[in-house]
Structures are given as structure tokens and as C-alpha cells.
Amino acid sequence: MQTNFKMLAKTFFGFEDLLATELKELGAQAIEKGNRVVHFSGDKGFMYKANLCLRTALKILVPIHECTLKSENDLYKEAFDFPWDDYFTSNETFAIDSVVFGELFTHSLYVSQRVKDAIVDGFRAKVGTRPSVDLKHPDVRINVHIDRNHCTFSLDSSGASLHHRGYRTATNIAPLNEVLAAGLIQLSGWDKRTDFLDPMCGSGTLLIEAALLSCNIPANINRKEFAFEKWKDWDEDLYLTIEESQLNRIQGLAGYITGYDKAPSAVAKARDNVRNANLEEFISIEKDNFFFTKKEEDTPLHLVSNPPYGERLEGDINALYKQFGDTLKQHYTNTQAWIITSNLEAMKHLGLRPSRKIKLYNGKLESRLLHYSIYAGTKKIHKLKSNSSR
Asked: b/e per residue, 11-49, with b = 16+ CB within 10 A?
């Protein structure tokens, strides 16, 4: 029987609750939320499952050593004395990522360099040879986290960030991060049955993440590799068993998932990515200008969009947002619309009052995810009709 151990999953600001819920549903133990991180415990098989299935996680780290630092020399000594040869050999490669908070250390690259020196010197002292550094494709990736005087060494079980799903080979300018897209959809409260629309779909990320969620397809099923596949205790049979178990939970799509974009190049890229994700039967992408479209039926629609913010847009960004709002009001009644933007000034030109605002970050841009309920007539009239029908 495998033994449980502590792990942590890194995520975006505002996604901590989503990630904690995902972990609970997967079967994690001892879940504890932090700032952009959720701590939990599980066995090796659960570590595999977390990397394969979690939609709102960026990394799964496994802490292997914690210590208190009183000086810079303490960092070197702790790294030198630690038995790294339990985890990799001098014939393998490694890389170090560091995150620092506090006054003792202020530069993450310096911390990475000191720990690298200590590891190399430690191997030389023990076995006479040293492992090499490979920043792009190492056999083992080590994470160093220093919060004031508290230092944690962890193994990175994911490798490249988990937003690299493996399906997106073609992108437009400033594509939406896959983990961010998955979180937006979950925050929007989509029931996975109502028809879903992204009216400015770009490379199709929101559409693909919606289909993966609705069909219960593991988020990273198309990913080429995880870092744990190079670890000493890699158990391929266990991983394949877990993968097969998750694939058996896939279900059909209840509604329609549709994307529009007016740019032929964007449509082509989005269709390529959908094809790479093996989701062609679930997603329809049409070359169309959203402003010239109309919702054909009065059935409920769930709309999630990441319209241009203005940084790279040619033309009047305020006019674009006004057209967006006019199109919603005139042609998309009975729609729950969710829009993420960092251009809060332009959003005022939408001509609609949001019922909810959620603070998020799109990269380094502070943004808001805004919710608009589009009814036939005014919201007040809608409420009166609802009350009279009871």
C-alpha cells in the first residue's frame, strides 16, 4: 500500500477555491488553501492523477526538505548536505526554479545559482562527478521557495507548466492561457448543458477547455510528458491504470459549443487546435463577425469571451465594446454573458451593468471577469414576470 505525502498545487490568483474543489473531487486529503496555492496530500498514484486531471493547477510540487535560514551561508549548507543522490544521479541533468520573499534573499536567480553550486559541490564530494544543468529539458526540476527565513526544497512533478495541454500548436497574438480559460469557465458557473458560445474565439482555447470540462476529459490527456516520468520511482503501469480509469469516465456533450471569429487566420488556427485535441465532433467554429450575428432561438445561452483589451487593437476600443453591448442587448436575449477584460474604461461603453465582478489577472494585467444577464426587455420587467408566474 502506497504512503501518502504532502504536495502543493500552484494556481492563479482567484482560483484557489476552484482548485481546492477539484482536488476534493479527485480524492485529495488534508486540503488547505493558501495564496495562489493549495496544499494537499496523497500517494504517488494521486500525484499522477492530479497532473493528468486538474484544470486549474499550474504545477504540482512535492516538498522534500524544509529548513530555517539565518544567513546566506545556511542556504548553501542546507543544499550541500541534502541527499540529492536519493532523487537523481550525477549522470542526469537538473534545473532550479526559485521564488523568494523577504529581506534575506531578494533575487531568485542568485538563489538558484547558490543552490546549483551546492548541489554540484555535494555530488563531487560524494561520488567525484557532478550532474549538469539543463534549463530546457532537465531530468529533474527542483523548486526552491524562500519566504523570509523559511526555505522549502521541492521536486517539480509537472515539468513545463500544466497550461501546456499539448493541443495548442497554433496561436494568435496574446493567446489566453489554458488554465486561465478553464478557470473562467468554472467561475462563470456554466452547467455544462446549456449551449456555449465564444463570439471572438481567437485560437479556440475557451471552446476547447469548455468541451474538455463538459465531456469530463482529463485536462492534460494530450500532453506529451510530465516531469515525474524521469524520476527513479516512475511507475508506468500505475500511470496507465490511472489514465485508463479516467478515460472511462468520459461522457457525451449535452449542448452545443460554438465559436465565431471574423479573421480567417484565427478560424484556421482554432480549427487546427480543436483537431489536435480530438474534439472536432463537439466544437463548431464559424468565420463570422459577432456584431452581425443573431441568436436564432430564445433558448438559454452561456457566453464567455476574452475580447481585445486595446493594447494591440487597431481602431476605437470604446466603439468595439459599445458594439459588443449593443449586439448582446439587441440579438442575444436569454443569455448569461461573462467577459474578462483589463480595460475597465472601455467596459463602461458596453452599456450594461454587471451583476458580478471578479478580480483576476491575465498574465500581469489586473483584470475583471464581469457577468451580464441579458433579458428580453429590462431586468425589472423580467423580475415582475418571474414573480407573477409563481
From this structure: bbebbbebbbebbeebebeeeeeeebbbbbbbebbbbbb
- Residue 157 CA neighbour count, 13 Å, CB half: 23
Report residue 373 as a C-alpha cell. Answer: 444577464
What grid cell was written down for 121?
Answer: 559541490
| Euclidean distance between the first and the last CA atom of the chain, given in angstroms as a whole number | 56
Question: Which segments in the chain show pLDDT lower than 50?
Answer: 312, 314, 378, 380-390
The domains spanning 5-156 and 178-217+233-388 adopt the same CATH topology = no
The distance of Cα 311 from the centroid of its chain, to the nearest Å, equals: 23
Which run of H or of E encompasses 154? strand 150-156
DSSP code of residue 177: P
For residue 270, the 8-state DSSP code is H
257-261 and 283-287 beta bridge pairing: parallel
Percent of the residues in the chain that have a pLDDT greater than 90, as a whole number: 87
- Classify burial at 387, counting beta carbons within 10 Å of its beta carbon; exposed 0-12, middle 13-18, buried 19 or more: exposed
**Using CA atoms, how far apart are residues 347 and 318, in angstroms rounded to an integer?**
8
Helical pair 178-187 and 205-214, crossing angle rounded to 10 deg = 60
Every domain of the chain and the residues it spans: 5-156, 178-217+233-388
Question: What pLDDT score does 1 carry?
Answer: 53
Cβ(303)–Cβ(334) below 8 Å: no
For domain 178-217+233-388, the CATH architecture is 3-Layer(aba) Sandwich (3.40)
C-alpha distance from residue 58 to each of 9, 229, 323, 335 (Å): 7, 17, 35, 31
Tell me the three cell numbers of residue 178.
489554458
List of residues 6+ apart from 332 with CB closer than 8 A = 294, 295, 301, 303, 374
- Level-2 CATH architecture, domain 5-156: 2-Layer Sandwich (3.30)
How much of the chain exceeds pLDDT 70, in percent?
93
Q: In sequence order, what DSSP letters do the residues of 330-378 get, joined into one string?
A: HH--SEEEEEEES-HHHHGGG----SEEEEEEETTEEEEEEEEEE-SS-
Entry pTM: 0.92
